[in-house]
Amino acid sequence: MSTTSPAAGPAVLVAEDEALVMMLIEETLIDHGFRMVGPASRVAEALELAATQRPDAAVLDIHLDGEEVFPVVELLAAKGVPFLFLTGYGREGLRGRWSEAPVMQKPFAPDELVRCLGQLLAPSP
Amino acid sequence: MKGEHVAGPIGIGPGGTRSLLLTSGETPMILADAIPHLVWMADAEGSIFWFNRRWYEYTGTSPEEMVGWGWQSVHDPAELPRVLEEYRAGLARGARFEMLFPLRGADGKFRRFLTRVEPFLDEHDATVRWVGTNTDVTLQVEAERALREETRRLDTLNRVAGLLTAELDLEKLVQAVTDASVALAGAQFGAFFHNVEREGGEAYTLYTLSGASRDDFAGFPMPRNTPIFGPTFRGERVVRYDDVLADPDYGTMAPYFGLPSGHLPVRSYLAAPVVARCGEVLGGIFLAHGEPGQFTAEAERLIVGVAAQAAIAIDNARLFQEAKRELAERQRAEEQQRLLLNELNHRVKNTLATVHSIATQTLQTAVHPQAFADAFVARLLALSHAHDLLNGGGWQGAWLRAVLERALAPHGGAEDGRLVLEGENVWLAPQVALAFGMAFHELVTNAAKYGALSTAQGRVTVSWRREPGEGGAQLRLLWVEEGGPPVRRPARRGFGSKLIERGLSYQLRGEASLTFAPEGVRCEVSMMLPDAP
Following CA atoms A124, A57, A110, A122 in sequence, which dihedral angle do they give, to the nearest 10 degrees? Predict the structure, then answer.
């Protein structure tokens, strides 16, 4: 992070269908110098954002309005965008090739979210 | 030489023994006539020149007819070639041999004889005579055949029993029962009808057929509780008719008065009920033959045996299937429970995340700890009340009016005329209902503290309606406060404003705006409704 200006910080795509949870994520991101891309409350919206924007990372709920977020994950992975799942199911909600992906359980500690995002954004050794 | 023998049987008349002094040559002749066997003598070449009296009595022939090779006329023409072949082969071998063949009696009926042919030799060991003894073995042959038949049936019955007890698939089982019954009784076709009482009817479901196809029965109704079928379906007894057409009970019932035309022909009829251990009549085995008199008492006994085996096997198969069903049901229930627990855990975690968000944001605007505690608890209760409402409806959703009433209840509700609710029935999805519940809580709390409900004259009107819109029905809701103190725009945006303008609009995927007009606070909400009734 070279700047604290919200507009210039790393862009984080947020997919979360619970308004109050989205608001907490948004606040956490803004307070820590990130820029929020979205938010998306549906898979179609998240796909659109993932396709048209170039986020630096993504925070994804697994179930969006009754749909699973995995198509979005496929697209992000293909574009090399790091992501983490933020879900009430915890790791048990993950399946198949994503079962080892980074995951945070709701409710979450904002500091922990920031720390995880920092790890995602750190250049690979 | 031949004539000498043929002409002179020295016999025993019906009147008694002729008292004679017999020459040494005559004695064998008397013996030959006295025994119950047919005896004959042939020359070295096999040409028969003498038969005993019993032969003539049995065959009803005369010596003239029998001379030479005339004996062939009392043989079965179908078997004669074989007999001749065996006879010639035996003669050629020159040693004692046996043959088995039928001979026609004076009554025209054939009986089977075992014939033993013995050579008599001269001092140079050359055959000079052949002597044959034919023994009637009809009874033995019959008994053997019957025994073989009985053994075959017992074998079949045992095999069926083994098959049935091993079979747990009900459909295959019933097919095996039907097939075995047809085979054992010698029926042309057979069926297993399931005993199913339909409402108000006596219809029975066709289950399995053997020796006939379903097409043969298509178009005919199921057998009904007629005098002929009744005893089987009631599990009373086995029914056997040599000729069903000759039975006085046949054809006494409408609408067919007998077999419907086009039905497979049935004259011989045999049916046995299949009754479970508990007494329940599972169904019946029905066998038919187009010719009368085809089913014997023996067949009846066998079918009763099969029916008993079938009852046990069907009982077992049913128990097995029930057990399997129960097991599957239990597994499904466990899976269901696991999913429910998972879902519950998910919901709890999400709710905690929501509460976390409420706490964080309440803290941002609270001026001191007590204010935080009051506001936070009030919001927690608002969330909890909305949950109660959804819980009452199994989390399927809630009516908008009910959400409003629940949120406004702590402030007098709609009864005192200061809160007016006007709108048709609108059903809200669970998350939407929760968001509305929280938003109304903020609005009514604000109204009670600073707005229309803070004075005796003020009032709040909430009105909503469904409007046709682009891409479906829209909900338009208006919260209007009036009669309160003049409204001042708050210096900073509070949690309520944020919750409505940011949170509610996001959750609804619609618009939610808050206006602090001097005459009273207004809130406008619009959202798409998923399906307009």
Answer: 20
